[in-house]
Amino acid sequence: MSSIEEYRQQLSEQVAAARAQSNELRRGSALESLSARGRSGLTQGDIPDTHELPLEILANPEETVENRQTALQTLKLLAISSRTFSEWRPAYLEALRIALATPELRLAALSTLVPQGDRRAQELLIKGLEDPEQALVEPADALNLLSEDPHADVRELAGKLVDQSTDERTQEAAIRHLAGDPSSVERLKAVIRDKQKTTNVRKLAVAALNALAPESLPVPDTEGSINLDRPINLTSRSADVEADVDSVEEFIRILANRRRSS
Which domain of life is it from (predicted)? Predict the structure, then answer.
């Protein structure tokens, strides 16, 4: 190789190295700016011109969780405002799936994947409800996320969780799934009857049953006791009056009075 060719090769290598260093510096500056904005809270005016860098950061397990969280926030805004979102949507979904491997990012990633109609995300959530050892998020979070998916039918699983779970958030999320299921009337009545469950859970079951099948809602025979096994009969009265009426029974009474006056 002649000295001229060697010089040209050296010059080419120097130019390539300089460009790489310049690109890395620009990337570092953009990343630092993105991270700073993330700490102060991103707004629509903060989103960058392109999606490439946030996608790269989100999909890179070597990046810090903080930077990847900020990248995800940025991408959520870009997904709304970008005219080319449909073109890079597949890469966005793939980056979110990669993020599922990081526990700190799972809930945020799933909260984005499910509304995007990602079947794999739905399958993972359902599998986690069926087998807690495979769960990516808490059962309550999984149920709440699946409620945003019109194609996810988890009423059977929700019914089991209402019966078996002792976690209030999980029971509440499960009851919301049962609120539109006519076959859940007896289960909702059982929840209302079960004073081992929290007041909030029982009240939510009352509201669900009132919307689903109000004629099945147990109502007070008098201003005191409530017969939880007797269907609605607003004209009936009983001589048995219980002094202590819990707030759930009072809630039932209020609903009954509203139906009577309507």
Answer: Bacteria
Whether 35 maps to a domain, the answer reads yes
Confirm whether 69 is domain-assigned: yes
Which structural domain, as residue segments, surrounds residue 50? 27-113
Residue 61 lies in a domain: yes
Please tell me which residue, 201 or 227, carries the higher pLDDT value: 201
Number of domains forming the structure of the chain: 1
Q: pLDDT tens for residues 91-133?
A: 999 999 999 999 999 999 999 999 888 999 999 999 999 999 9
Long-range contacts of 207-215 (CB under 8 A, 24+ apart): 207/179, 208/175, 208/176, 208/178, 208/179, 209/185, 210/255, 211/179, 212/179, 212/180, 212/181, 212/182, 212/184, 212/185, 212/188, 213/182, 213/185, 214/255, 214/259
**0.70 exceeded by pTM:** yes
